[in-house]
Design brief:
Layout (H helix, E strand, L loop, with lengths): L6 E7 L4 H4 L3 H7 L4 E6 L7 E6 L10 H10 L4 E7 L4 E6 L2 E6 L3 E7 L2 H14 L13 H6 L6 E9 L6 H14 L4 H21 L3 H16 L7
Antiparallel strand pairs: 1-8, 2-3, 3-7, 4-5, 5-6, 6-7
């Protein structure tokens, strides 16, 4: 991925690749009403709701636990609490005052939500946060491997030019790319700091982008930043 003046170039992904389809909860609801399994009052806090969200039907593993923990570690500064077990494939975190549990079979539990609309909004943010850890049905690998081209099945030879002026929060991408370039020339300790910042900025961009199409460049840059150094440790 390069960042010339005013534009970026990213691979074109095959239509069935997870990076093309995305996992937006609102989109899933149009196809499968059971995406939101149930909504009921919280037992621990009066006036608040809890809900179970199902990104994919069934109990088969659809999230790579190692990648999930790595993504959450990158975004740790945004959580007041975080626990993630690679062995169990379960993550629990406190994000924006909401208790969230994420399971390797694609189920998400949200607690302390104000109403159903907030449940969908939070679920969308969580789905975008863990997008890179979800297993693509084309290649069977985490979507971050699709983003980097490492899976070998999801990218086409053609690359797409995207105008930065058309992307909300494009400065996050620009700053991430700058930090990535600086990290490659810096001393080890400074390089690690810059890489961590580049990863955070790329992931933050992907989470905050209003459309999944806009979010993809963030995952592409995140994959590049992860390849440029040691992955974040738990």
């Amino acid at each position: 991925m390069s960042l010339p003046s005013g534009e970026i170039f990213v691979p074109r992904f095959r239509g069935e690749c997870l990076l093309s389809r995305g996992t937006e909860v609102r989109d899933l609801l149009r196809l499968r009403e059971e995406t939101v399994l149930y909504v009921q009052p919280c037992t621990s806090e009066r006036g608040k709701l809890m809900a179970d969200i199902e990104l994919r039907s069934g109990d088969t593993e659809c999230i790579d636990s190692k990648t999930l923990c790595a993504l959450l570690e990158i975004h740790r500064r945004r959580f007041s609490e975080l626990k993630c077990s690679r062995n169990l494939g379960v993550a629990k975190l406190m994000w924006k005052g909401r208790e969230i549990s994420i399971f390797k079979n694609g189920k998400i539990k949200i607690q302390r939500a104000l109403n159903r609309e907030e449940i969908i909004r939070v679920a969308n943010s969580v789905a975008r946060l863990i997008w890179g850890a979800e297993l693509c049905e084309v290649c069977g690998q985490p979507a971050l491997n699709c983003a980097s081209g490492a899976c070998g099945k999801c990218t086409q030879e053609e690359r797409v030019s995207i105008e930065l002026d058309e992307l909300p929060n494009a400065e996050l991408l620009q700053q991430s790319q700058i930090n990535l370039q600086r990290a490659r020339k810096a001393a080890p300790e400074e390089s690690e700091r810059l890489l961590n910042m580049a990863r955070y900025q790329a992931l933050f961009f992907a989470i905050e982008a209003p459309r999944k199409e806009d979010a993809v460049p963030g995952l592409v840059l995140l994959a590049e930043a992860l390849q440029s150094g040691v992955p974040p440790k738990r």
